[in-house]
Structure formats: C-alpha cells, structure tokens
From TrEMBL:
Name of the molecule in the record: Prolactin-2A1-like
PROSITE patterns hit by this protein: SOMATOTROPIN_1 (PS00266)
Residues the record lists as binding Zn(2+): 212
GO molecular function, one term: hormone activity
Cell location: Secreted
Gene name of the encoded protein: LOC118238682
Species for this entry: Cricetulus griseus
Biological process per Gene Ontology, one example term: mammary gland development
GO annotations of cellular component type: extracellular space
Length: 235
C-alpha cells in the first residue's frame, strides 16, 4: 500500500487540536514527517491517532448528553417504556464476529466510517436546530449537541483525507442511509417530540461507538502493516 509523501491539512489539524477546535481543514500540503522508503510514517500515525481520539471524544460527549437528557426528560415522561425505533444507520455495521472485522481491508472499514458519519450530518444539524424547542433545556446539553455536530463534520473530513492517501482502487459501492425523523422532532405533541429526541440521541451514541471501534481496527491494521514493530489491541 503506497502512501504519498505529504498529507493535506495535517499540520493545521494538529494546531487546531491544540487549540481545542478539533476540526479538519483543507489547506496546502505541508510535509511533517520522517520518510522511510518513500513513505511518510509519523504523519499517517498522527492522522489515525487524531481520528481515534476525536471519535472517542464524540462518544464521550454523546453519552454525557444522553445521561443529561435522560435525567431531565426521560424519567418524568416514562420514555423508556415506549417502543424504541430502529436507528437509521442500523444497516451499516462492522462485519461479525470481530475476528472477521479484523480481517477486513482497512479501506472497506474506512468507507463504512465515512458512510456512518455522512449519514449523521443531517440528523445532528436538526438535533441542534430543534433542541431549543425543549422546555427547561439545560445550556450544557445544547452546547454538547453543537460540539458533537461540529466534531462529526470535522471527523468526516478527516476520514476523507485519510482515504485519499490509502485508497488505490474501488472496494465496492458506498452506502448512505437517509434519515426520516424530522417530522417527529418538530411535532406539536410534546411526548412525541421528546421521545424523538430520546431515540435520536440514543442512536447517535450507538453510531459513535461503532465509528470508534471501526477506527481503532483501522489504526491497528494500517500501522501494523507500515511499522513492523507496531503492536496493538483494537478492542
């Protein structure tokens, strides 16, 4: 697997990480790596580490938002007793069992991650936009929703950047799933609206964990191939 000598946006990304913005941006190519046999090892490692770290941060914030929403609304409205709806990204999943996922080509898994992140751009946008309609909304919950939306978009751009470096042929059709929950988020019925938020945040948490797990597998597989001394346990 041949990698190019430079990685667009890496240096800017690292600076943004330090400043806690955590966004990937398209900028001029800046070499920032040690080159061995025509390959740029540290830069790829930094990009993969950054992607994993960002996915972990998203998972943590979604979990915190779900707990906060559950305490604020779910208990008093008995939302848990209602039938949970299927997540719109449920058809996008890692190969099972896990040993099969570990044998899957990293490009295939990266494309899955890209599809998962892309499928959440619209739902997260409306989650933030419609959340202000909730009564007694804690400011911390809205702040977390905004950060999650921003980081999801940033991570998506990062995955596209990584794919541009490691992909050298087509690995099947990419799947994008549509979301149809906007009407429920905007419902005039308070219980319907709150249940829609509850289910959406729950699904966002499941999706975040799926992305985190997938990226840990990718990092393990790619770095093990590039660096003979590298050893990792992805789970």
């Amino acid at each position: 697997m041949q990698l190019s000598l430079t990685y667009p946006g890496l240096w800017t990304v690292l600076l943004l990480l330090i400043s806690n913005l955590l966004l990937w941006e398209e900028v001029s190519s800046l070499p920032n790596c040690a080159i061995h046999n025509g390959r740029c090892f540290p830069s790829m490692k930094k990009m993969l580490d950054l992607a994993v770290n960002m996915s972990q941060d998203i998972s943590k914030q979604v979990f915190e938002m779900f707990i906060e929403f559950d305490n604020q609304y779910a208990q008093s409205h008995q939302l848990i007793k209602k039938s949970l709806k299927k997540c719109h990204t449920s058809s996008l999943h890692l190969p099972k069992p896990r040993i099969k996922a570990l044998k899957t080509h990293p490009v295939v898994i990266l494309k899955l991650v890209k599809s998962l992140l892309a499928a959440w751009k619209v739902p997260l946008y409306h989650l933030v936009k419609e959340m202000s309609s909730l009564e007694n909304l804690p400011a911390t919950m809205l702040s977390k929703a905004r950060e999650i939306e921003k980081k999801n978009t940033g991570l998506l751009e990062g995955i596209k950047s990584i794919l541009s470096q490691v992909q050298n042929r087509n690995y099947g059709n990419e799947k994008y799933t549509a979301w149809s929950g906007l009407a429920s988020l905007k419902s005039d019925n308070e219980d319907v609206r709150k249940f829609a938020f509850y289910n959406l945040i729950r699904c966002a948490g499941k999706n975040a964990l799926k992305v985190e797990t997938a990226l840990k597998i990718v990092r393990c597989k790619i770095l093990k191939q590039l660096l003979s001394h590298f050893h990792c346990i992805p789970f």
